[in-house]
Each structure stands twice: as C-alpha cells, then as structure tokens.
Amino acid sequence: MGGGGSCCEGDVREVVREAYGKLGEGAPGAGCCGPSGCGTGMTADELAKKIGYTAEELRALPEGSNLGLSCGNPTAIAALEPGQTVLDLGSGGGFDCFVAGPKVGAEGRVIGVDMTHEMIARARKNLASYRKTTGLDNVEFRLGEIEHLPVGDGSVDVVISNCVINLSPQKPQVWREIARVLRPGGRVAASDIALLRPLPSDVREMVAALVGCVARAVLVDEYLAMVEAAGLADVRLQPKPEYVAALERFEDPLYRRIAEALPPGSKASDYLTSLDVTARKA
Question: Does the pLDDT value for residue 200 go beyond 60?
Fold first, then answer.
C-alpha cells in the first residue's frame, strides 16, 4: 500500500465501512450515490441506464442488488467471455456480479469481494433469486478488503470494479493486488472517479465527499502512474464527464454541496470525472 499514517488510513476505512454497511442494511445514505439514485429524483435503475447498462440486464437482476452506487459499466468495457473467472472489487449488493454471471456462463466463475458484512449478507441473500432467474450457480461472495484480496495468485482472468478503488486510502496496494491475482494476459476493467484538477482542501475534508468517492480521488496523471507502477501494461484511461454532469443536472445533494464549496463560477465537473480504466497483465 501507499505511504501515510496507518491511523489516518484506519479512520478512513472505518468511515467508509460504516457508511456502506448502513447502505447494505437498506438505510438511506451517501455512497458514491445513494440507494435511490443519489437523491436526485432518479431511481437506481434510471442512473444505471444513463451510464450504459441495458434494460435487459437490469430486468434480470435480483431485487435490491442495484443500490445506485455505480459511476460506469465495467462489465461492458471488460468484454467478458464464456468460461472466464471474474473478480469484482467492492461488490456491494452483487450488482455487477449478477450482470457478469450470465456473460461468463456455466463454465465461468464470478467472485465478489466486499469489506462490509452487511453488503456480503445482502449479496448472498440475492443469490437464490439469481440462480432461479438464470439457472446458473456461478457467483460467490467473499468478505475481504481490496488491499488484501482473498484470492489466489494468478487465478483470475478479469478484474472489474465500479466506483470503489478511489475510496481506498492505499490505492497503489490495490493495483498491486490486482496485478497479483490476474493470470498472465488477464485484464482489468474499472470505472472510477478521478480529478481533472486538485480539489480545494475544504471539499476534501467533507466526510460526505469522502464516502461519496470524491475526497480520496487522485488526478488522472497520478492514476495512470499507479496502474503502471503495479506492472500492468496497455493502460488506457477514458474520462467519462457525462456522469458528473448528469448528477449536476439532477442536483444531487453531494455534488450541490461540493459546488457550494468551490470557487465562484466553478462546478463539480470542472474538477471531477468518471474514468474507465483498462489494462492487462503482460
């Protein structure tokens, strides 16, 4: 993991764990978004459609697995194939795992990892519905931290993650773990939040921004350096500004608070972007 005081890192982790644990229990709150589409008047499914999920994918999901926490669609950019083993970092209620399962089929495997007991319980509860709807038994959920993945070396074909890596106080370690678990030639496809320019310090200090995937975000150039330092190749970063712009249009409470703390005339999308990240293990 990256440097910094372990005390501060532990505080950050516990703030995030508590907030997402409450979401896992069904309580309203702020994640990257909240469970009702970030408090914008959009439902979680409406938000998912805006960032690339199909109506067919959403109809097939177990009820309650989509918590409106996405900032992209990593299962689409991953171009999943039958028979692959997929690992989802920060799997939450199982949303992307349940989207990925039919894509890899009966010969494939999807493993979701989350650090909150409440989210793991919610995702496992959804397994029965997934199995009944798809006829597949190829998804499992493991409790663990994305900085210390409970997965063997070189055992995964594709790593996906959706608006989670930015929350980690030790992002370089997350990327080293991704490199460790990927098989040679394996790929990572992540959607995340990054900075186009540094945020003012008072925005970074907002706890709501921390839990909302903003305060721990790094500059795009720093993100690229982290991924390359982990030893991954063919790294591609694709900014997706439409995500933040959509939340601004719908007056998401978190992004409204951020805008109020920015210099006059500035808006959140001047500083923040959703980012599609792809790379492979040589």
Answer: yes
